[in-house]
């Protein structure tokens, strides 16, 4: 980046989190996501949570959930993704608790899109 005199913006870091997560480099993606400003939208965390589900890294998904489910900007997509992870692990009560929380708070899922796909 220095070669071209560029300063990475949060959007660049979020894209790299997505790429690293899809490639299975979850620890590296987690480290990079932690460099994002606190007030940055949770999309990078959501893509990392999705990558944790895909790659079966439930230990890291718990850490990511801690960072996302307690944010003010948490949306229904993140909550439902975590609910699905709990269901995949057989943690039915936790999955139901999150779904009920979404229902009570009347959160709605945003439709997503990706600029970079497999």
UniProtKB/TrEMBL annotation:
<dbReference type="GO" id="GO:0003723">
    <property type="term" value="F:RNA binding"/>
</dbReference>
<dbReference type="GO" id="GO:0009451">
    <property type="term" value="P:RNA modification"/>
</dbReference>
<dbReference type="Pfam" id="PF20431">
    <property type="entry name" value="E_motif"/>
</dbReference>
<dbReference type="InterPro" id="IPR046960">
    <property type="entry name" value="PPR_At4g14850-like_plant"/>
</dbReference>
<protein>
    <submittedName>
        <fullName>Uncharacterized protein</fullName>
    </submittedName>
</protein>
<dbReference type="InterPro" id="IPR011990">
    <property type="entry name" value="TPR-like_helical_dom_sf"/>
</dbReference>
<dbReference type="InterPro" id="IPR046848">
    <property type="entry name" value="E_motif"/>
</dbReference>
